[in-house]
Structures are given as C-alpha cells and as structure tokens.
Design brief:
The chain is an all-alpha fold and about 290 residues long. It is built from 13 helices and no strands. The protein is about 75% helix and about 0% strand.
C-alpha cells in the first residue's frame, strides 16, 4: 500500500511540473539546466541517507550511452518547457505522452522487437488522437497561444524522451538510481555551454518567486520525486505501475483546468483519450496461447 501511495504522489508531482515551469522567468534551456544541476546535486547528497551507492567505475560503452541519454534528457526538457510556453499544459502534456508511440515505432529497428497487430493498432489510434488534438476545428487559433507550434515542441520532447528510453536499454551493470544521477549530471554538463552561448548565465535579475519555483522544480519535482519513484517501483508490479502512470497526464490536465482555467474542446478530449488509450492498449498483456 505504501508503494502505491508513494507512486501516486510521484505521478501527481510530475503532473504539476507545468504549473511551476510556466511561472519561472527564465528561458526553457536555463530552466532545464538548473533543474538538472539542482536535481543531481540533491540526489548525490541524498544517496548517503537512502543507502544508495554510486558506482564511479563506468565502462566506455556505458559512458557513451550515458552521454547520449543525458544529452537527450536535457533537450527533452527544453522542448517540453517550450511547449508549455506556446500552448496549454493540456496540449503539451498530451503531445508529450506520444513518447510510447515513438518507442513502439523505433523498437523493432533498434531493439529488434517484433511488430504485432496490437502495436500497429495502438499507433493508428494514437495518430487519430493527435489529429483530433491539432486539427483547426479544435480551437487552436485563439488567445495568446501558438498551439500548433507548442504541440510540435511537445512531440519533439516526446521524441527525445523516447530516445532516452531506448538508449537506456543498452546500459548494463548500473542501477536505475545510478543511471538517473549520471544522466542528470551529464544533462547539466551538456546544457551548460549551450545555455552559455544562447541565453547566457546572467540570472541576477531573477525575482524571488522564480527562484523559489526553480528550487522546488529541482528539489521536489526531480530529487525527491525520483527517490520516491525508485523506492515505489520496487514494491509494485509492472502492470500496476503502468496503470498508475496515467495519473501523471490526467492530473496535469485537471490541474491546468482547475488552477489555470484551461479548457479543451470535446474534440480534443476525444483525441486525448485516443492518445492515452493507445498507450494503455500497447501495455495490455495478451495470453499468447489465445492470441
């Protein structure tokens, strides 16, 4: 029961990220940089208290995979945070949840997994859902948003996160905790010169609200959330984790509607259900003897 409660808390925490990011007065790349830096420092410090060891002896193969996945993670955050700036949190979240679809499309080529009819159907349903979310009649041309641009950034973020998931399959001999700490650290290292050259590092004019929200994003949404996540998944079955994971996007949509008064047309709602439903369908286990 504790594992379920902890996992639900983590999903609700992840679901609220957009509410915090949209109120931080920094560029998306700067927010991503500080999130990775604060989160990695917190996790390294917390490792002494949660009895998690960090193996610094890393093979060349693992180091290469960690550099690639860490860089992908950093740019995944940048594009997701950009999506929040151009469209609603609901649209950004739904487009970002296209990640499993990208994984399903790429897995047969990268991981040599077999195509199945169920996966094919899932992809078709997801594409229909995306079409319903972005098509003009869904009200994408109103307000101060550039929704199509924002959804495009959300899909780019999903693509980068899908690459993180696939690259992680090639990392061996490291725990999930060690992998995460290394990826967060590498993401910060990779983003540092990028931010330096594009946005600069001058944050002296940052107001107190942004500083507090940035600290919460790094400590709570990254450090604490990952610690709870790793402790929870050890106590839960894979199917339970899959079902509870939907709390993240659903809570993001509801929180945006309640706190920010964001609205979705009924067409977008149907599209969102299709996107989330396609992922659920792909995760359902089928009895191979009756397939």
């Amino acid at each position: 029961m504790r594992g379920k409660v902890a996992f639900i808390v983590v999903m609700l925490t992840f679901g609220s990220i957009g509410l915090f990011v949209t109120h931080i007065d920094l560029a998306s790349s700067q927010i991503a940089l500080f999130r990775g830096a604060i989160g990695s420092v917190f996790l390294i410090g917390a490792s002494f208290f949660v009895k998690q060891t960090l193996n610094l002896k890393i093979s060349k193969r693992n180091l290469l995979m960690l550099v690639l996945s860490g860089a992908a993670l950093g740019f995944n955050w940048i594009f997701l945070f950009e999506a929040y700036q151009y469209t609603t949190i609901s649209n950004a979240t739904l487009s970002y949840y296209f990640t499993p679809v990208f994984v399903m499309v790429l897995a047969p080529f990268i991981l040599k997994e077999k195509w199945t009819g169920k996966k094919g159907l899932s992809i078709v349903i997801a594409l229909i859902g995306l079409f319903l979310v972005v098509q003009p009649d869904a009200g994408l041309d109103g307000g101060d948003y550039l929704h199509t641009v924002g959804i495009g950034y959300g899909l780019l973020a999903a693509g980068f996160y899908a690459s993180v998931i696939l690259i992680n399959k090639f990392i061996n001999g490291l725990s999930d905790f060690e992998t995460t700490v290394m990826q967060l650290s590498i993401a910060s290292i990779v983003l540092l010169p990028y931010v330096w050259l594009t946005e600069g590092m001058n944050v002296s004019g940052l107001d107190m609200q942004s500083l507090i929200l940035l600290a919460i994003l790094g400590v709570i949404h990254t450090g604490v959330a990952y610690i709870l996540y790793f402790s929870a998944i050890k106590q839960l079955k894979g199917q339970t984790i899959g079902v509870l994971s939907y709390i993240d996007p659903i809570s993001a949509v509801f929180m945006a509607a309640i706190i920010l008064s964001e609205s979705m047309s009924w067409i977008q709602v149907v599209g969102g259900i299709c996107i989330l439903g396609s992922t659920f369908l792909s995760e359902m286990k089928v009895d191979e003897e009756h397939a």
